[in-house]
Amino acid sequence: KQWYQRRVAITAGDLNMDLFMRVAPELYLKMLVVGGLDRVYEIGKNFRNEGIDMTHNPEFTCMEFYMAYADYNDLMDITEELVSGLAKSITGSYKVEFTPMGAEESVIIDFTPPFRRIKMIPELERITGVKFPPADTFHTEEARQFLDELCAKHEVECSAPRTASRLIDKMVGEMIEVQCMNPTFIIEHPQIMCPLAKYHRSEKGLTERLELFVATKEICNAYTELNDPFVQREQFEKQAVDKAAGDDEAQCIDENYCVSLEYGLPPTGGFGMGIDRLVMFLTNTYNIKEVLLFPAMKPEEAKAEDAKPDES
Length: 312
Fold this sequence. Notes:
The protein is about 35% helix and about 20% strand. Helix 1 packs parallel to helix 7, helix 4 packs parallel to helix 5 and helix 6 runs antiparallel to helix 7. By secondary structure, the protein is α+β, with helices and mostly antiparallel strands. The strands form 2 sheets. The protein has a 7-stranded mixed sheet with strand order 1-2-9-8-7-6-5, with helices on both faces. Strands 3-4 form a two-stranded antiparallel ribbon. The longest helix is centred in the N-terminal third of the chain and has 20 residues. The protein contains 9 helices and 9 strands. The chain is globular. A hairpin with an 8-residue loop joins strand 3 and strand 4. The relative contact order is 0.16.
């Protein structure tokens, strides 16, 4: 995601350094696992510059946990039990009524486990009718060109920079996410999209990652954590190349985190869920502002300016 970084001035007599609003507590929680706390969690505020719309607010509440000796299969089981249990406990049923924005009639979201599971690349191949290059070659210019032409063929829009990661992400949004009205896992993302996720144990170029979608919107992201310090540094370096090319969603190299991995992160499963968005679906609310006490709103002066007629 595009990082939300707002500089905070620190007086010269204190730290004398720039600080930033956090986008996630992820790396710090995993460093606690390195330090010997096998299970850690936090429910708190994150800040991201993803724009403001019906399902996005710059400040939002997120729940993250990290569990040593778990993998993405365990995380899918935990997620199914957690989300379906919440729906049943709060509404009295696994089937929840929800009215999408602009819809004349409500739809029924069925939280009955087990949830559907879709493998990302095989599903894109099925929809487009073409065979993708091997996933472990997605970092090459040839693969990027293939994806670029495929997006153009299917009229999938992707603004610059048209990196392989961004092209795949846009295709997934246009072709797969729109299928996910009932809770659905999209799993096994390419490594180029997941610098912090562990490489798949049997599928080269893929990762052990999952995203849970409800009513076509993501509510959960989880994966087996990458715990090899050398591979992690390589992934950060590849992200730095994309960032230098203009991809604001790419990550920078985090030296402190790379050093911590050298001390040893046990096999770990990591999980993150947007609380506000889940509340939307469980309360039949299509606008995230309706479940936030103090959402980001346009200033009255800006509203008045927008309301003025165009004299040109």
